[in-house]
Specification:
67% of the residues lie in helices and 0% in strands. The chain is an all-alpha fold and 225 residues long.
Length: 225
């Protein structure tokens, strides 16, 4: 694919101009995958509050409350150990607690583990807003962030469908209320969190990178390691 020609400062970066750079396009596709899986896991865990226990309003309140420490921990660790490693750790923990909340036999314990998973899912999704724009040159950041955000919206649209479809299934077991139990969607969210880790493996670390000095085209610079 033809490399992106140098664009003067007064020229506007367009979709067509950006897509002519094969390196930037491939990175954008990977970043969109991270945005999509992040949105899917974040909104999926939130919307599945009713499947954890019957106290839906309390669950939703707690799901929102645990986001406060997530937004404090995320930026701190990202500056200490790097965006990439922090993102991977958060997704590993989110997947772990999703699986534990799914497998735990008692519903009270499920809520606790699900809240822990929500902390890491929230921190991971918030970190995407910090990390993803830094991967691209300055004049491409607003455009690539807009594209990535749209990908996240796709994930957030798919999440409630998964929750609703699984709530209409039956496991064959009878719950404490005497009604058939439905399978929990947490394993699906755990799988998507693992997929996000795979995407992150192919992206560069930007912790110690002078992002303001990046050229317009990635093809004009050395690859970021």
């Amino acid at each position: 694919m033809e490399p992106l020609k140098k664009i003067e400062a007064h020229e506007e970066l367009t979709y067509s101009a950006m897509l002519k750079d094969s390196s930037m396009t491939s990175q954008l596709m990977i970043v969109c995958g991270i945005w999509m899986t992040g949105g899917f896991v974040y909104y999926g865990i939130t919307l599945s509050a009713g499947s954890i226990s019957k106290e839906v309003h309390l669950n939703m309140f707690l799901m929102g409350l645990v986001e406060l420490p997530a937004y404090l921990i995320g930026p701190y660790l990202a500056d200490k150990i790097g965006r990439k490693h922090t993102f991977m750790i958060f997704n590993v923990m989110a997947a772990f607690f999703c699986l534990v909340s799914w497998a735990y036999p008692r519903k009270q314990g499920r809520l606790l583990f699900a809240l822990c998973g929500k902390i890491f899912a929230s921190a991971s999704f918030a970190l995407v807003w910090m990390w993803a724009p830094e991967i691209f040159p300055t004049r491409a950041r607003s455009l690539t962030t807009a594209i990535g955000s749209q990908a996240a919206r796709v994930g957030s649209i798919l999440a409630p469908y998964v929750v609703v479809l699984m709530s209409e299934m039956e496991t064959g077991e009878i719950g404490e209320d005497g009604k058939p139990e439905s399978p929990m969607p947490q394993p699906v969210f755990a799988l998507c969190a693992i997929v996000a880790i795979g995407f992150a493996h192919f992206l560069p670390e930007t912790k110690d990178l002078d992002v303001m000095a990046l050229p317009l085209s990635r093809s004009e610079s050395e690859p970021v390691s």
